[in-house]
Amino acid sequence: MEQKTLVLGVIGADVHAVGNRILAYAFSQAGFKVVNIGVLSTQEEFIQAAVETGAAAILVSSLYGHGEIDCCGLRKKCGEAGIGDILLYVGGNLVVGKQDFSSVEKDFIEMGYDRVYPPGTMPERPIEDLRKDLGLIGNGAELCT
Amino acid sequence: MEQKTLVLGVIGADVHAVGNRILAYAFSQAGFKVVNIGVLSTQEEFIQAAVETGAAAILVSSLYGHGEIDCCGLRKKCGEAGIGDILLYVGGNLVVGKQDFSSVEKDFIEMGYDRVYPPGTMPERPIEDLRKDLGLIGNGAELCT
Amino acid sequence: MKLTAAKMNQEEFARQRQAVLGQWVTGREVDFSEAVAYHKELPESKIFALKLLEAKNNGSTYAQPRAGVALLNEHLELMRYLQAEGEADFLPTTIDSYTRQNRYPEAQIGIDESRRAGRSMLNGFPAVNHGVAACRRIIESVSVPVQIRHGTPDARLLAEITLAGGFTAFEGGGISYNIPYAKDVPLESTLKYWQYVDRLAGLYEEEGIRINREPFGPLTGTLVPPSISHAVTIIECILAVAQGVGNITLGYGQCGNLIQDTAALHTLPILAEEYLARLGLPAVTITTVFHQWMGGFPQDEAKAYGVISWGAVTAALAKATKVIVKTPHEALGIPTKEANAAGIRTTKQILNMLRGQTLPRTAELASEEKVILEETRLILDQVLDLGEGDIAVGTVRAFQAGIIDVPFAPSRFNAGKILPVRDSLGAVRFLDFGNLPFTGDIKDYHRERIARRGREEGREPAFQMVIDDIYAIGKGILVGRPRS
Amino acid sequence: MKLTAAKMNQEEFARQRQAVLGQWVTGREVDFSEAVAYHKELPESKIFALKLLEAKNNGSTYAQPRAGVALLNEHLELMRYLQAEGEADFLPTTIDSYTRQNRYPEAQIGIDESRRAGRSMLNGFPAVNHGVAACRRIIESVSVPVQIRHGTPDARLLAEITLAGGFTAFEGGGISYNIPYAKDVPLESTLKYWQYVDRLAGLYEEEGIRINREPFGPLTGTLVPPSISHAVTIIECILAVAQGVGNITLGYGQCGNLIQDTAALHTLPILAEEYLARLGLPAVTITTVFHQWMGGFPQDEAKAYGVISWGAVTAALAKATKVIVKTPHEALGIPTKEANAAGIRTTKQILNMLRGQTLPRTAELASEEKVILEETRLILDQVLDLGEGDIAVGTVRAFQAGIIDVPFAPSRFNAGKILPVRDSLGAVRFLDFGNLPFTGDIKDYHRERIARRGREEGREPAFQMVIDDIYAIGKGILVGRPRS
Lengths: 145, 145, 484, 484
Ligand code: B12
Ligand code: B12
Fold this sequence. Notes:
Chain A has helices spanning about 20-30, 45-55, 65-70, 75-80, 100-110, 125-135, 140-145; strands at about 5-10, 35-40, 55-60, 85-90, 115.
């Protein structure tokens, strides 16, 4: 079974490193190849890492509240870099303040993200979603991990 | 200056004694003659005490939530006892639950109470109101206490 | 029947029982042996005594709310909500105030009015009016043990109906549900009523059914010094054991000073075991319950959460077996189920975070424990003396003489001579000792501490200081410093 | 400029100042002597250092929130609200994350977008973009002292503008605002940047203006063992005093075990005084600040109140001079002003109720203090050795060598080799010591305690245990027991 590569990072001027560290660990444990570009990452750095490693998905974290500004336009730039179809997940505390999640989700889906995760998401959920979205389920892949 | 008499008590099956004790002390300190019939008092006991002592006002406490049931009809019974015009104050935690006070106030005014006090009222307020309602203000009475 | 602490004989019990079950129509539903059979079928997870023991053995503190509404379906919903959303370890069924005064017709009006108004017009669940089958619906609707909590001077019928209804714990006692909850009921009567209740629990016990009994520690909830509530609680414990009760939870209401409260909780089981042994009564299973602050609360919910949390911290550090939880609505009215659940969750967050943490034993703690033990023993020994060895008789005489005296109690059978006040650190001391049988040393201990506060505040300690203390927590502080 | 802990000379400062003030257009508004004159006019009640001293002298703990929004008027409203409705003793002005990274053009976009959206799109107040006059509006709008709180590796321009703007306290330091807040900024650079900030504060001091400086104790806020944060805090204290700072508040973030946290707070001033004296630096006014739990919070507000309260209790019992308050919205997003004020009121209720109450000194507390003192001294002495007596130089080398190592820090100048984990009672211990210069005895102390937990949980202590601990408080517990 081919090992899928994920690019992981925290976008913008955001330094929240703890969740990123745990996600990297959890995705590796789950059998993915993790390219973790860490905190304070620009959109360009995400894309470059994805292109260079032939990644199957980009997972963007934004915790500090500036997510709306920082995440906008990533899908378009992916297209320009020739990876317009790459899977884009985003999660964390995406906006400033305690806001209704369904409207936040809608905004980010409109920005071109495939899946949007609320604050406090445990790694199990994106792992299951990735397996589904990357077609790893049903072919026994989940048994390998 | 004639000393006005107040009848004080806690109505119904209510045993909350602490506020009653403090009110009795505060009204006496403020120069009133206090007839405190205490907790677990019936409407009849309030009226009897008022008639017997020629009281100027009846102050009803209800803390435990059954105020709506227990306080209903007191004004009418006062009328029947020949003290239909007596000043009636009521206060405490008058209804079950945390409810909007202005609607509670309205209900009790409709029941015939002259003044209604919200939870946590300090004695200073009814003392001032009594002085006003009993015409003790402006004639130097407040200086005597 | 002459008052005595001895076990009630079977004939007297039977005689009373007939009268008691006739007090209200639902009394007819009670069938003791059928009830025993019902209890035998209950899963262990619903038995109060067993879950208390679990908490005690693993050093945890479990949380229990107060809650009750007029109508059965709403009450079931409330119970399920507090279990699911409140994460309550134990559930209560709090009884309304008409039932507490045996005014079943008025309780019926409350039920009917509640149906009409579409909201509970009663401050609790009128279990007698609802009857045995309704009680069993409660027990069957939840998966944790449920207790009857009330304040009923004569709770004989309530006990018959709710114990037959499957409840496995019953709060109250002949002193603690009289002096703070009645005005005109003689102590002698309530002591007898509660001997009936305890004997009933004892009968279940003899059938192998564990019924937990819990004297109501906080009394008037307002600045009650530990030795006063301890004396009452220990007497009720003794009286209960004498009637065959085998499982007792000793209660105490938070005063607010961590050291004093911890000392109070530590000394409760010591005293109980000591006096049970002295009186030749069997050793029973003793656990403790700590009540979060029982006096006036702040109206602001954020501040109320602070008060709730401080109670939770103290319960955890002092290792109470159980803590009774207040809610952010306390100052205003009976809480919604949401507010009630919130209070439990705040409490549980703290209990869980503090699991295993304790207040280390220090000189201050030891000296506070010593004072409480000494004071309580002085009271209890005098009670026994007055009763010529009979603690029931002694209790009546002790209240007459002001040897036990509960501050701010409405009962005219309470002397009402003592005055409590806080010292500089918020511990509750005696400003006026009334007729308490304390030694000069103990009195000096209190006076010295109160005098220190007086000096700090530049005023003579007097009734105004007591009033300031009564309002203090509601105003965001513990010690009622003079308003500036 | 070569790195050294010595006082920066006036020429170097002047040279940098010119460049710094040119970094953004508002730099031009800074006029030092005019600023000094402005400060001289401030009433004493607005001077941070004085109010801290008041708290210290009367044994109180004062409460301070975090708060900041994008636009000035909204920020003023927020400040006034937290003062009036939150009863805050101190106010903050929290800076947004673009400003923290010196990205003033992006901060400007945030300001503009916020105007358009009608809500703050920034997570703080962009003080540099707003400029000196706007800062003074803040100082003038409230009656309590206000501090700049941020997380800025290069805060020179921010300091220039906000101190000229009348702020009397400034958080941060060359380590604590780099290692947790940056990825690629060399420590050598930030140490120098912050020597500039400290020198600037020192210049005000020389003019008789007291500027309070506060190293950011909690670092990454996540299971940071006390000796790690103490080492960093003491170094920043030394570096600040070397530049002429005269008033320092030493910070520490709650770990959750009462004894460990109390020991941590008690040892901070001891260490500061000891090392200042050893290095021949002047004794300065030292106070302490305790941060309520800085790691992941529970989403449920009732549970969050529990976490907030436990922090408040610890701050009060350990007698911190100041406590930084979290809010019931913590897990979800920047709080509304209402939620922020609620967190303060909960905290203040507890601080006021606990006024005067302390955790008595016990064997457990003394032994925890001893361990923290010993560990911190081992680290600091090694830092001084590596720096051949120069603590700035030693700091850079110590981080290179992993002699100081901050868990979960994003900086690549941090070794990232240590792993913290809780013991059975929730105290934070070392699972992996990395290169920390600890003795065998100390290592055994930690290992023994962690092993005990492992036995209790029937698992080998490993990274999964650390992860469980990171999630624990968010899930309602302190120790991340294995999910069952
Ligand atoms: C102490 C207390 C008790 C003690 C009382 C001891 C005693 N015998 O006095 C004990 C523990 C026994 C007790 C029992 C019960 N209580 Co109680 N109790 C309280 C508590 C915590 C404080 C009351 C108090 O002493 N406050 C201090 C005094 C100084 O203030 P006060 O009583 O409010 O009185 C002041 C003002 O209200 C005002 N005032 C009062 N009356 C009047 C009248 C007039 C004319 C004026 C001008 C002013 C005025 O002036 C007073 C002085 O400032 C309150 C909640 C709270 N306030 O925090 C609940 C509370 C009053 N109790 C309540 C209830 C329901 C009960 C119980 C039914 C048990 C239960 N289900 O939980 C039983 C009832 C027993 C009975 N039959 O009455 C509810 C009432 C709910 C409602 N109205 O919706 C409250 C509000 C708690 C709650 N939120 O659930 N209680
Ligand atoms: C620890 C912490 C810090 C530490 C971070 C240390 C470090 N370098 O890592 C410090 C103290 C330095 C810090 C600083 C700041 N913080 Co902070 N911080 C937190 C806190 C308390 C915990 C974060 C954490 O570590 N959680 C534990 C980890 C395991 O969980 P996590 O980060 O949420 O990640 C998990 C999930 O979200 C999810 N996830 C995350 N990303 C993604 C992506 C995908 C694709 C998926 C599937 C899942 C996923 O999976 C992760 C693992 O389970 C949170 C509040 C909270 N959560 O309680 C605030 C919080 C994130 N911080 C916040 C803010 C604003 C700041 C500051 C700007 C300061 C301020 N104004 O208060 C600075 C920003 C600095 C910067 N430039 O980024 C805000 C964000 C507000 C908002 N969005 O509205 C929060 C929510 C607090 C608050 N309510 O105000 N912070």
